Amino acid sequence: MRMEEKELKELYAMRLRDRRTSRTKRRRHGDQIPDKVGSLLTQYFSGDEAASRRFEESRAVVSWEKFVGPAVAQVSEALRVRSGKLVVQVKDPLWMQELSLVRHSILKRYQKSFPKLGLLDIFFVR
User: Fold this and answer.
1) For residue 100, how far is the Cα from the chain centroid?
2) CB atoms < 10 A from the CB of 51, how many?
């Protein structure tokens, strides 16, 4: 009986040692934080000016809600960037009027966040 207890203790000690090393390997592997997809794409397309510009245009269109807030984003949607203009579709004429009044402040924020695009205006369509 004593022999079996001793063997069980040794096996248990080995198991704990194995668990510690496996946890350490997971921790080491977990410390390597993967790169964000955006930074990977930027690095990949860094030599191609047209592709990086299209990437910036896409980022500008997707970030519309960030610049105007969720309430305005429910009634409007950025469609594309073309010829230095951000084209935004608005569902309601009243909202179109409201957005045209704050166009310059939204444009300034866009110009600050996306200087490479050279945005000159925001164009609202229905």
Assistant:
1) 27
2) 13
Contacts of 68 (CB under 8 A, 6+ apart): 76, 99, 106
Global confidence as pTM: 0.63
pLDDT single digits (tens) 8-55: 888 888 888 887 777 655 566 555 666 677 777 777 777 777 877 888
Closest CA to 118 of 87, 68, 82: 82
- Where residue 69 falls (left for φ over 0; alpha for ψ -120 to 50; beta otherwise) is left
For residue 30, what are its two tokens? 């977990």
What single-letter DSSP state applies at residue 120?
Answer: -
Extract the tokens encoding 31.
Answer: 């410390």
